[in-house]
Amino acid sequence: MNSMAESKSKILIIGVTGNLGFELAKASLNASHRTLGLVRESAFSDSNKLQKLQFLSNAGLDICKGSLQDEESLVKYLKHVDVVICAVSAKQVLDQKLLVPAIKRAGCIKRFFPSEFGLDPDKTRISHLDHDFYLRKSEIRRLVEAEGIPYTYICCNFYTSYLLPSLVQPGLQAPPRDKVCIFGDGNVKGVFVKESDVAAFTISTVDDPRTLNKVLYLRPPGNTLSMNELIDIWEKKIGKSLERNYISEEELLKRIHETPFPDNMQMVFIYSGFVKGDQTYFDIESSNGVEGTQLYPYIKYTTISEYLDTLL
Ligand SMILES: NC(=O)c1ccc[n+]([C@@H]2O[C@H](COP(=O)([O-])OP(=O)(O)OC[C@H]3O[C@@H](n4cnc5c(N)ncnc54)[C@H](OP(=O)(O)O)[C@@H]3O)[C@@H](O)[C@H]2O)c1
């Protein structure tokens, strides 16, 4: 190993076969961190996951067989690293209750990144609608803080792959070319960041004291747009005006209540991002936050306009 890699934290990533975890592992290896991936046995019999593991292993990932449920092997791997990044899915967030005591037992972890990677769970004011999606993430924060584990929480807002491929139209697979629904008055700004950029920002924070015990917000100026602005950009690209149908906040709430869970969650996220706009209306300093694009101006993130070009 070269000396640059030796001076950098060793990172264990949980969830390298998943969507974000794979990007995190690539970014970590790219930045010359010694990188370990905790992988469940079942992943090896899934051809897509096996392909990802082969790719990462060729790039230098050390694969560690285990799971959050296997505390002994978990503690053994934790003792080899300085930093843990967890990227289990939203459904598995409370499984991190197994990880926190293991981190405590290992005693060597200088920083933990729980699986968040979305809107700030302590700031998002829709908990009555979301079946405790954000409450579960907040619960893990409180556990981490109660145990005195050093942390960084990553609040990256929406992944570009989540709502942007449909131009924020629930149920569509591609952006509309005739008519479009706009929720609320269409002037509330939401934020999108590409997963590979989320990963690059996350890995940049690992050894940065400015982000220790802080919330890292990602709100790139070029990617913070209202639905009206988003549609303006799309119209220019396709050279055509769309029929704009405004859906009031009350109507969106009615649709959310009438649609069974979890099918209504996409509308819940649209409500929190583009009607309530929680992520753009608070002062990050009073929220124990730092802004990723200000700390790492050299990271060339993908803009919404560039992303929309890939959908033409
Ligand atoms: N901001 C947004 O727009 C947005 C969108 C989607 C997700 N997210 C957030 O991003 C984070 C990651 O979600 P994702 O969609 O990337 O997840 P994902 O693709 O479902 O991947 C989950 C990963 O966790 C692993 N895993 C699950 N349970 C495990 C266990 N008990 N032990 C070890 N590994 C385990 C899975 O391994 P196997 O391969 O063995 O199953 C898989 O690698 C979540 O916090 C989610 O809420 C944000």
TrEMBL record:
<dbReference type="InterPro" id="IPR036291">
    <property type="entry name" value="NAD(P)-bd_dom_sf"/>
</dbReference>
<dbReference type="InterPro" id="IPR050608">
    <property type="entry name" value="NmrA-type/Isoflavone_red_sf"/>
</dbReference>
<feature type="domain" description="NmrA-like">
    <location>
        <begin position="8"/>
        <end position="308"/>
    </location>
</feature>
<keyword id="KW-0560">Oxidoreductase</keyword>
<dbReference type="InterPro" id="IPR045312">
    <property type="entry name" value="PCBER-like"/>
</dbReference>
<dbReference type="Pfam" id="PF05368">
    <property type="entry name" value="NmrA"/>
</dbReference>
<protein>
    <submittedName>
        <fullName>Probable pinoresinol-lariciresinol reductase 3</fullName>
    </submittedName>
</protein>
<dbReference type="InterPro" id="IPR008030">
    <property type="entry name" value="NmrA-like"/>
</dbReference>
<keyword id="KW-0521">NADP</keyword>
<dbReference type="GO" id="GO:0016491">
    <property type="term" value="F:oxidoreductase activity"/>
</dbReference>
